[in-house]
Sequence to fold (320 residues):
Amino acid sequence: MVAVLLIKRSNFASSSFNFYIMDQIYTVEDFYRAKLNWMPENLKNELGHFNVFRLSDFVHNSTKCGSYVRKEYFKVSLINGRHKYEYADKTIQIENNALIFGNPNIPYHWEPLDDALSGYVCIFTESFFHQFGAAKFNEYPVFQPGGHPIYFLSDTQKQRITELFNRMFDEIGSEYTYKYDVIRNLVFELIHEAMKMEPATTLFTSSNAFARISSLFMELLERQFPISSPMQRVKFRSPTDFAGQLSVHVNSLNRALKETTGKTTSQLISQRILQEARSLLKYTDWNISEISWCLGFEELPHFINFFKKNVQVTPKSYRS
Fold:
């Protein structure tokens, strides 16, 4: 059996807990570089990566909510103590114990409200669970956009979750040949323990929610451009696509953008698609069918009609 790289916990050198980097993926390497100021050997492994930490090792102060970032890894946190958690356009204040699931595609941020926090964090890549389990890992409700990533814990539930994290530490330090399978099972136990609980639903919208969600939308939109290859394709094309990725209702997204930009979600998407279409027609020799496909249109006539409606000429005439 090929060993998955597992690294025993170490003290973190820096103080921030969540990271926001514009227009790029925040990788596992970024996590270790920012937190440890050193890079483990052979960090990348075809069977994925997993590690577990005690919260007291690296939490010292809070960070301000930043811009959209797609992380390379999932995260599950058990946090004991008062703190505020923000994800997408929602905010929840936690007074005691909470189990929190971090999806790589959903922007999130948390802020300690006192100095007495404790708990655990584990991070792992999706490839760590490749061909392990009945469903794709990110199809579990705790990780889905629009789902419930936060669960309040009773003292009994906290004890059970704490035991699971402690068993992860034990397995990482053991010499057992199949310890990686045991660790995977422990992560699945965390997931299933959560799905048996009632999720935290007492959410409120923070005062700057419109500005934050508008910023997240614009950054997610811009991350799809420029189109630099005929093999590259726009993935998010509709308001529903963006709302799903940002874990907000499509009406909430539209209200936020209308309030902050004066334009609807559809208008902003269309403007950016049109801008890229003009550029590709002018500066590349790709045929119009290729450009249409790259911009997310399923049928060439749909692209031609879209372009003509907005520019008053066909793509072919514009190029000429």
